[in-house]
UniProtKB/TrEMBL annotation, chain A:
It comes from the Bacteria. The lineage of its organism: Bacteria, Pseudomonadati, Pseudomonadota, Gammaproteobacteria, Alteromonadales. InterPro entries: NqrB/RnfD, RnfD_bac. GO terms for cellular component: plasma membrane. The complex is composed of six subunits: RnfA, RnfB, RnfC, RnfD, RnfE and RnfG. This is Ion-translocating oxidoreductase complex subunit D. The modification FMN phosphoryl threonine is found at residue 187. Keywords: Cell inner membrane, Cell membrane, Electron transport, Flavoprotein, FMN, Membrane, Phosphoprotein, Translocase, Transmembrane, Transmembrane helix, Transport. Part of a membrane-bound complex that couples electron transfer with translocation of ions across the membrane. It is found in: Cell inner membrane.
From TrEMBL, chain B:
Its EC number is 7.-.-.-. The lineage of its organism: Bacteria, Pseudomonadati, Pseudomonadota, Gammaproteobacteria, Alteromonadales. The complex is composed of six subunits: RnfA, RnfB, RnfC, RnfD, RnfE and RnfG. One of its GO terms (cellular component) is plasma membrane. This is Ion-translocating oxidoreductase complex subunit B. InterPro entries: 4Fe-4S_dom (IPR007202), 4Fe4S_Fe-S-bd (IPR017896), 4Fe4S_Fe_S_CS (IPR017900), Elect_transpt_cplx_RnfB/RsxB (IPR010207), RnfB/RsxB_Proteobac (IPR016463), RnfB_subfamily (IPR050294). Binds 3 [4Fe-4S] clusters. Residues 105-134, 135-164 form the 4Fe-4S ferredoxin-type domain. Pfam families: Fer4_21 (PF14697), FeS (PF04060). Residues 31-89 form the 4Fe-4S domain. Its cofactor is [4Fe-4S] cluster. [4Fe-4S] cluster 1 binds at residues 48, 51, 56, 72. [4Fe-4S] cluster 3 binds at residues 124, 144, 147, 150. It comes from Neptunicella marina. Keywords: 4Fe-4S, Cell inner membrane, Cell membrane, Electron transport, Iron, Iron-sulfur, Membrane, Metal-binding, Repeat, Translocase, Transmembrane, Transmembrane helix, Transport.
Automatic annotation (TrEMBL), chain C:
Residues 368-397, 407-436 form the 4Fe-4S ferredoxin-type domain. One of its GO terms (molecular function) is 4 iron, 4 sulfur cluster binding. It is a peripheral membrane protein. PROSITE patterns: 4FE4S_FER_1, 4FE4S_FER_2. [4Fe-4S] cluster 1 binds at residues 377, 380, 383, 426. Residues 465-486, 758-767 have a biased composition (Basic and acidic residues). Its EC number is 7.-.-.-. Keywords: 4Fe-4S, Cell inner membrane, Cell membrane, Electron transport, Iron, Iron-sulfur, Membrane, Metal-binding, Repeat, Translocase, Transport. The keyword Iron-sulfur applies. This is Ion-translocating oxidoreductase complex subunit C. Residues 465-767 are annotated as: Disordered. The keyword Iron applies. GO terms for biological process: electron transport chain.
Amino acid sequence: MSFKLASSPHQHSQRNTAQLMRLVIWCALPGLLVQSWLFGWGSLIHFALATVTAVVTEVIILEVRKRNFEVAIKDSSAILTALLLAVSIPPFAPWWISVIGAFFAIAIVKQLYGGLGFNLFNPAMAAYVVLLISFPVQMTAWLPPASIALHSADFLDSLSMIFTQYSREGYSLAQLQAGIDGHTMATPLDQLKTDLTLGMTYSESLNNAIFDNGLGIGWLWVNMAYLAGGLVLLKQKAINWHIPVSLLLSLAVMATLFHLVDGDRFASATFHLFSGGIMLGAFFIATDPVSAATTNKGRLIFGAAIGFWIYLIRIFGGYPDAIAFSVLIMNMAVPLIDYYFRPRTYGHGRSAR
Amino acid sequence: MLFVYSLFAIGLLALIFGLILGYAAVRFKVEADPLVDQIDKLLPQTQCGQCGYPGCKPYAEAIANGDDINKCPPGGEATVKNLADLMGVDPKPLDDSHAQEPIKKVAFIREDECIGCTKCIVACPVDAILGAAKHMHTVISDECTGCDLCVDPCPVDCIEMRPVEATAQSWRWDLNSIPVKQVS
Amino acid sequence: MESLLNRIKNQRWWDFPGGVHPPSRKDISNQGSIDNIALPELLHVSVKQHIGSEGKIKVEVGQRVLKGEALTHSANPFSVPVHAPTSGTIEAIDVHPSAHPSALPEMAVHIKPDGLGQWIDLKPMQDYQQQNKSKVVEAICKAGISGMGGAGFPTHIKVSPKKDVQFLIINGIECEPYITSDDRLMREYAWQIRQGIDVLQYLLNPKQVLIGIEDNKPEAAEAMRVACRDNEQYQICVVPTKYPAGGEKQLIQTLTGQEVPQNGLPVDIGVIMQNVGTCYAIADAIFSGKPLIQRVVTLTGEQFDAPQNVWAPIGTPISHLLAHAGYQPASTERLIMGGPMMGFALANDHIPVVKTTNCILAPSLSEMPLPPQKQACIRCSACADACPASLLPQQLLWYAKADDHEKAQEYNLFDCIECGACAYVCPSDIPLVHYYRTAKADIRSAQQEKIQADKARERFEARKARLERDQIEREEKHRQAAEARKQAMQADGSDAKAKIAAALARAKAKKAPSEDTSQTADEADNKKQQVADAIARAKAKRAAKQSDATIDKAQDGVSGDELSNADNATKPADAAPADVKKQQVAEAIARAKAKRTAKLAEESASESSEEESTPIAADSAQDDKKQQVAAAIARAKAKREAKLAEQQSAANDKAADNQQTDAEPAGASSADNSEPEYQQKKQRVAAAIAKAKAKKAAQQRAEKPQDGSESEAISEPEATSESLSSETDTPENEQQTAQDKKQRIAAAVAKAKARQQAKKDAQEDNS
């Protein structure tokens, strides 16, 4: 009589890749919802667009590569990429922005490098950067939070905006961007950067309508939602603490240092931590396992370096926010980091006599 | 005057860099094996002569002088690949005439048939056959490289090549090789 | 050191990195006490059940053995004997599927129990504390005890360390899920285990004995605590449950905070670890004299009706255990020897219980689903977080898959303990451990091959050097001999000494052949028979291979080799190891002489026949088989003859070298004299043959006709050898020196031609 053979271990933990991906998606949803609540339906619509594009692209390419696409679709990694991309696109950006972005992320950044597990760069961030550089106008047309916007847009308005660039009442994007005072509103980071170049001080800039208590209105809540989701991920051990903690810490340290040196020109750490997509970046983007460092020591370096780059680019660079650039830069450094920051194997080195 | 200065500056730079390079050449000198030895290390040392040379070292010398790297059946594709890496050429498939992948074998003398002719002893490139004229010969199987060279000279065909049996120690965790259905 | 001890006293343990918490499910099988089972119909006692080398079988088929009788005896320090688990007769000594993942057949003794269970004379050693330590160690070795935790390291080696031991760690962790054999053993036989620990304590004399037990086995810990409470040196260490806390290295780290250095042994840091089962076996061996013939095996998994622990005699086939616990497996089921993390799947159920078998696991599909198809690695590093050795499993996987052995070793592949934690947590279900095992096996075999290749290279080069050296020596001798002869000949007649020497030489030369002839006759007879045998085989061979072309190709290289190597044929002894060379050289000389005389005789005979036969060859082409056989002999002889001159000179030179002043200078001088002549003759003959063959080849004739006269020639060695020896006395040096060059060229040409041609006839030639 003979039996089935398999290599040990014969027992496996129940968590698999698809579950991991779905967990991350679930944890990112609160952030997405808050974002939609504050800035309108646009993000959700883009999420839907990007998801469809990403999944279709993945199926086609896997078919071309003669791989089994069923497994690849079931692992939900394409949906996660679409989600991360959608939340970084301005809500009322035209529909083709998210379509191009999702296509680029899946086709070029992910599949051309060999599919899941082989991509050097974070697909969502690489796509975002491509969009930002190719379509700077559309990609920077952020709206003021609904609470202080002059015109509000409901779901149909949002659809209309995304597909025709005009709301049903005929308002253009520029009109929707206007705040209560009639001025065109930008993101807090944009605003601050513009004001600083105009010679205003940090505290003067904070008087602008989009700031409240020294923080951008709405953005605080978005970041809090992502922070909450991220903490759940940590609790579930879906991600390690090393990258988010070191990223936030290094950003905070940089910001505090500069703020202490010249409080008029440099914003406080709190402002930096809760502006833009920092929490999204720290917990959901930089921790993407495929393109991040893999050793614990390496992760600390990786996260800290991203924080450092974010601050540098925010302050001295041409772009208001810098998560995508920073993550991509450090993605490139991952092989180096992994090579040099290996853990000490049992019985090797230090305590081995 | 500017011309002189710049000439002087460039000359000085050249001197400095020359010194640095010279120092580096001495300080970081790489002691490399002669090419033939490096090639020889990659060859399987069966000394079988299937490449057309009387042993691995001669073939190594031939490769160093530009012969093809794909003439070593005992080494198989792995050796060809290593040689290609070393020589900086593209790996080629094994030569047609001996394209089979190697299975490690050793010679075995059916001792009751041996007439003690010593022909195999002469043929053995690594002196792995023991015996004297008119006495039975035997193969020191640990030393046998499986080169095959002793099989043909045998006038009574009492030498055969037997595949080396897998032992539990040398087992390669090839679950497929166990004659039962494998899961997954 | 003190603080370390204090910390241990206070039960503050260290932690090792990584680890996983699979559901332990020990309650399936740890409810009832250890059961005794009926004897199976046949026991298969594997000869090798431990790391090291197997012992020599000292029993025979049909022999009756008693319970506990040793079946093997250890020939070297790394082997332990195996014993008959019960009394009975030996049915067979044969290969049997081994308790190894490969299930490769290994030697086993098959015993048919007679049901009496009759013990051998047991020799307990109750007073072990009065005995010499080495005696106790010997008793442990004789009892066949090897580590029962998993690896099966011979215990007697472990208990005789060369270094001081600070900690003796008793491993009762049993961190693998499902397994409860050590658990039950500790609960029921704590006192015996304690006795075993006492013996170890006496042998090793450690500062502290730490008994490690996981906190999911409170009953076992309590039992051990009660058993050990009167000795302050013994400390029960209850450690948190985490897989693989029971790994040797991990337990040492947990209990002492120290790490075993790479490539080191625990004893390097003053630690010795023994499994509780081993302690039990030691107590059995010392206090009752019983060898290790049974062990506790856990039968568990949802497939069993009655999961339990049993005392299984070593050698019990698994099928018997399954039947005992009420399980009839279907062929598609999985059966695992060992635990779910490190156990291996059994290929069949004939495999016997061995000393390291702690568990038979028969999981249902629902409790242990088959691994799903593996997916791409997403570099999540869950494996690195789980690795107890702080390795980087995904990098290792990458290099293992790419066969990049160097890199894999740089990432410390060999520090992997194959615990399976990485594969357990992998969300992509990649069988990581399997890749590592394969890579390790590959690396080991590559290293082995490398060693062998180096050895082969060495031997090849040594051989080449030897051949060159011989060549040079031979040439040098020829030259010297020739000069000596010239001097002797040209010397003045008044040179009495030379004359006497020459006369002596001649006299001896005459005597020598006549002495040799008797031998020659014998040997010729001998040879005839062998040749006849060979011919018979050759015939068969030829019949099998009718096609000329293939034969040609196959034989091409052979004949060439033979020609070029001909002069080495007389020195087979050089193939022997160096330390017996001297003796062998002497033997070789003797053999060579005998051979020479025999061949001289044949040579002259065949020589003439060859010369006769060549003209005939041109026109006749007969296919008669009988004639072919004869032809084969003739050719063989012709070839031998062609080599002979060289052989002779080689052999004789050696003889001459060693024995110039000895009793047989004549052999040397006569041979030397004969040498040039023979060379000429041989060359001429060879040339003739070559030419003839070339012609024939051109005419596409495969057969070479011969006449049958040579066979007669063999039977007349006396006459020929005499005529030969008389010939040899005639000096022809002048001619030799004059025609030297010409001849050599001619010879070379002839040889080349002969080689070309010989391929066709090499087969026959050889025979």
